[in-house]
Amino acid sequence: MHIITDGPGVKDNVCKIHGSTRVSGKRPKRAGAGKAKAQLPQLHAAILDLLVLMNRPQQDDILLKEAGLSLDRALFPLLVGIERFGPIGVVALAEGSGRDHTTVSRQVAKLVELGLVERRPSAVDARVHQAVVTKAGRRMTDALAAARQRLAAPVLAKWSEKDLETLVRLLRRFVDGIAAPERD
Question: What gap in Å lies between CA 3 and CA 58, rounded to an integer?
């Protein structure tokens, strides 16, 4: 995710797990199945538009240039993923990035060679090696995060603070719900 910035901190009146706001202890009104079904095509289209935008090689080039970094654009999403989810094994990283694990294994080896990542035995299973960012890798992901914020700032400057907080909260809630759907 190369454009979206990290959101503001979670407020006391927001559920720390799902991000839903509660007023006077009442549950927020839920969208009925019909309303959700009617809105789903628009939501799906917006998500696809965002994915297409974020997966364009030009976006990666713009972000790398803004960060003042020179790195193969196939490597930096893996570096960011390792920083965000690490320590992480190659299979899990490949699944999360939608790439073949043999390709990811070679790319992680390149990140190790560049001194941005190191591989360590898993604390759970010593046969499995996990990738962890090094201090140099952290400096690079910090530079990418700062560049991402600079690039997003002009767009987000037009938004109210409340709109941005709502977007972050609802997007997090949606992603969490897709990842682990509640069963009523």
Answer: 12
CATH number for the domain harbouring residue 138:
1.10.10.10
152, HSE (Cβ side, Cα atoms, 13 Å): 17
H/E run at residue 132: strand 129-133
Which residue in 79, 161, 61, 162 sits closest to 115, CA to CA?
Answer: 79
| pTM of the full structure | 0.72
Contact between 28 and 21 under an 8 Å Cβ cutoff? The reply is yes
pLDDT tens for residues 71-96? 998 898 899 999 999 899 999 999 98
The separation between CA 121 and the C-alpha centre of its own chain, rounded to angstroms, equals 25
For residue 151, tell me if it sits in a domain. Answer: yes
Domain count for the chain? 1
Residue 12 inside a domain? The answer is no
- The sign of the torsion formed by the CA atoms of 44, 162, 9, 184 equals negative
Q: Average pLDDT in the 30-48 region? A: 80
CA separation for the pair 93, 102 (Å, rounded):
11
